[in-house]
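Section 4.2 – Deliverable D4.2 (structural model, holo form)

The reporting period included a commitment to supply a predicted holo structure for the target in complex with 2-keto-D-gluconic acid. Inputs used:
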Amino acid sequence: MAGEKPDVLLVGARKPVLIGGLEPKVNLHYLLEAKDQDAFIKSVGDKIRAIAVAYMANKVDANFMQRFPKLEQISSFGVGYDYIDAKWAGAHGITVTNTPEVLNEEVADTALGLLLCTVREFPQAERYLRAGKWVDKQYPLTKATLRNRTVGMVGMGRIGKAIARRLEAFGVPVVYHSRNPQPGVSFKYYPKLLDMARDVDTLMVIVPGGASTQNMINAEVLKALGPNGILINMARGSVVDEPALIEALKSRTIYSAGLDVFAKEPQVPKELIEMDHIVLFPHLGSSTEVTRAAMDQLVVDNILAWAAGKPPLSPVPETPWPRK
Ligand code: NAP
Ligand code: 8YV
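Output (structure tokens):
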């Protein structure tokens, strides 16, 4: 009926920006609060026209989307949306939106933090002080330094560029690999990842997850990176062959790694946790109150634009607007 609020499913917690922005304009249904989620979907599925997803634990695949026959829009939290089958959505008239740009600088800050922590062993040195060891002996000089390193960026998109700008300011040479050279980017471009890995001693990974990047950092790439090599993964756990990385770290095929993301989050392999010469972050690239609120706001704004019959603010490439 004209003027009625549309029914929207919220997959995520009751975050203030989401609730404050959406509740006045749509009928929200809270999936994660249902005791029996399957029964809940059966009861509301027929009327749901949009989904706001702020919790990426569940795959949004064809099976899931088919349960909502009137579904028009999925507004997803985060710039990465590899947990959604966006191609299927596009082929079935469903628009998918994500939250690009608003997190670029925050994630780039984290990437530099992780790189510095890994190269200079800052977390280890801090643990050393807290353990009361400094009073007996100075923390050892670190073998690695940023001063003689070249960073090979795997991915030179929105966040990659923000990371590269910071590296330039630090006086660190940058080169990059992606499937296509980036217009307007003057860093040396490598069409082949393996060639770049051979020429650099540091890889900074910031590509999307999904089939096209699955395990692209494999044993061969790690061997090419070599014994001074440092791998920083800010992208997705799926991009790195985790068993191959563990083996390369154990055998000192590479020197160290800084990881913000893992194959089966929040589970982190025991072998990685037990290695003291690497640095592990619990996926905190964008995790400040300000940036997460900006991401929530974009989730809201994409739903509100749809509810008002306006174009989506940030549709993903698989579901372009206007629809093809
Ligand atoms: P973006 O602007 O789309 O950039 C992606 C870059 O990756 C582009 O340079 C792209 O170039 C390249 N790329 C894509 N597929 C590739 C492939 N198969 N092989 C080689 N290069 C490929 O994305 P963004 O906004 O920078 O975000 C990148 C990713 O970072 C997200 O998708 C997410 O997974 C991750 N992320 C992580 C955190 C965190 O908290 N750790 C936070 C935000 C984002 P071509 O298309 O030319 O190949
Ligand atoms: C978030 C991210 O930490 O935007 C992304 O792709 O990986 C991060 O900003 C993640 O979405 C939280 O689940």
